[in-house]
Amino acid sequence: MVSDHLTDFFNYLSIEKGLSGNTTAAYRRDLERFFHYLSINQLNIDQVFPEELVGYISWLRGRANTEFKIGEASIARNVISLRSYFTYLAKEHNYLNPTLNFHPPKIPKRLPKALTVDQIMSILEISGDDLISLRDRALLELLYATGARVTEIINLNTTDISTMKNDDAQVTTIRVKGKGGKERVVPIGSFGLTAVNDYLTRSRPTLSKVLTQKALFLNHRGGRLTRQSAWNIVASRAARAGLAEVVTPHSMRHSFATHLLDGGADIRVVQELLGHASVTTTQIYTLITIDRLRESYASAHPRSK
Fold first, then answer.
1. Does the record bear Cell division in its keywords (predicted)?
2. Looking at the predicted structure, is the pLDDT value of residue 71 above 90?
3. Which of 2, 95, 111, 158 lies 20 to 30 Å from 138 when distance is taken between CA atoms?
4. What is the CA radius of gyration of the chain?
């Protein structure tokens, strides 16, 4: 039964492919949507051919059904999920693969939303001396200081922080486990380090209910801070800073990358810090700096127009 193959497929994604829980959950949602489409059209999995996939994409776009109107990027991910699933079925269970020559729709490059340095400072400089404020400041400082993904930050343990000394200086780093289980080491600047140390010495010992708790960031019950809580902390701080736009942990990551490139950092270094597998992914941030150069040139040079 294909339902049994689905269970095997998700085990394959998490164990053999090493995909994160969030990515596996996205594949699961995509495939549930696809099987819903098959059900309402009274189709079996072995009746799926390329032309049926075209119909599915049309349905997703809302031409045949308005229940699941989603963006082009999500549609592209749906196609990738289907290709992975049918490739698995073909390899492991001898199914015909209707997705061999079927590709996701092309998605135009979108510039990530980055905050200005002043906007970042307005978020980070909100004061507070209670246990939760110290924790929140450390979280925000670490997001901006490292450019790490929110999941990477909340999965940090206290043992992932280390300090290395040489003759000239000492550098404090965090060991981050990124997508696919790949680890990288990212330095922490002095402001981030001060905020983290304040949290570790003044807040975390009180928040921790269990002496053996290894999680770096804890909630008020002493458990590991959740992804949703981290999102709420960032959004709340941004609102308190008077920022009208929606600010997320990913906004901090985008800002980290953009500000590094604005400051002259090498793109290969930024790639390594962000944990991008390909420099092509990092290059989208250069479009932001190019746009800013173009705007400055247009407004300042007497013969730019």
1. yes
2. no
3. 111
4. 23
Element (H, E) at 186: strand 183-187
SS3 72: helix
End-to-end CA distance of the chain: give it in Å, rounded: 66
Report the SS3 class of residue 6. Answer: helix
Active site residues: 149, 179, 250, 253, 276, 285
DSSP 81-127: HHHHHHHHHHHHH----TTTT--PPP----PPP---HHHHHHHHT--
Class of domain 2-93: mainly alpha
Q: Cα-Cα-Cα-Cα dihedral of 292, 293, 297, 300, to 10°?
A: 60
Among residues 116, 143, 90, 94, which one has the least CA distance to residue 250? 143
The first and second tokens of residue 262, run together, are 């604005």
d(CA 19, CA 13): 6
Check if CATH label 1.20.1250.20 holds for domain 117-127+144-186+224-297. Answer: no
> With bands split at pLDDT 50, 70 and 90, how would you rate the model's confidence at 64?
very low
- The yes-or-no verdict on residue 68 having pLDDT over 60 is no
The CA-atom distances, in angstroms, between 154 and each of 43, 88, 265 are 42, 32, 27
CB 99 within 8 A of CB 53: yes
Kindly state the helix (H) or strand (E) to which residue 134 belongs, with its residue range: helix 131-146
